[in-house]
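Fold this complex.
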Amino acid sequence: MYFVVAGAGEVGFHLSQALLESGHEVTVIEADRRRANFVQERLGSIVMNAPADEGRAQMEAGCSRADALIAVTGDDAKNLVICQLAKLRCHTPRVIARVNNPKNEIVFKTLGIDETISSTRVLMNVIEQELPSGGFMPLMSLAGSANELIEAEIAIGTPPAGKTVGSLRLPTDALVGGIIRKGKLLHADDETKLEVGDRVMVFAPTASESEVRKALMG
Amino acid sequence: MNVVIVGCGRVGGFLAGLLDSEGHRVSVVDIASTSPARAERAWFQHLPGSFKGETILGDGTDLEVLRQAGVERADAVLALTEGDNRNLMCAQIAQKIFGVKQVIAKVNDPVRAQTYRELGVNTFSRTTILGTLLHAMLQEDREVGEVLMRKALAHEADMVHEPVKAR
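Structure:
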């Protein structure tokens, strides 16, 4: 397969090396000349010294015949634009963005970039599984709208524990879709009482995420 | 009109002052400096001393910061930072997540400006606008150039007369 890697920092460098080692064809785009030279000395002439967020550089790198483009710079806004440009201008079939600030995952999804990787999120998921307390997780954005699906676990001592769904102070345009209690999916109406450990599934506008968090986590 | 301006450089500061003086509700967002050498006031130095709107220190691509700036009840959001990508991200958030009606992003790279315009994001490129204006002034379209210049010079005169207050 042919991959274009945008950004030759630590992540881009090691990713390119790994892809090459597993027999793939790779082009790395790096704007900084010194860094581009450094990588070229180690990986061979697969490096293009150009700004990856410009359409022309992406064309030259062959994004239109690439199987995938992976944007791994340290700047989220840049990764977003690199991916959007590749999708729009070069019709690259698969674009993947590194997200440095995990809050941006949902933003990227809403803006049409479905595949994101956040190292912070990966680490957090590993750690969260070890923690006994409840969690609040935006699971996915809902395609074609500015809404998302959120999962929240009701923790001890938070306002919703023991209260009914109807008494939650959710924003008016949020919907409780169901509850997972002890592994079983329950229907939720206004009269349903919430117990500690319940995982509540909420559909809500992405913009009101913080209000949903406040209502469910205290 | 409620207006949020992200990026308080020369253009952002100028426009914020202009809208504020016309009675609009303006809030200005500029990125917080991590270096202690640059004090807070340095970031809003391009605002006129008479500015009555709000100033918010923070990242204009952060949903929480935008909310603080009042994006939810904004009639217009203008993304005017030095970074094309940041402006494009901010504009798309305002438009697609917060549903702001009028959103404009400053994008200096004309190719990117055009691509995003096709995607429905209102963009303008300083390069092409200034270039076109100068071109019009030099030759065939003197009228357009002169009208624009007269307006610009009048605003400029107003701004110069106002003493800049340390904020």
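The first strand of chain A starts at residue 2 and ends at 6.
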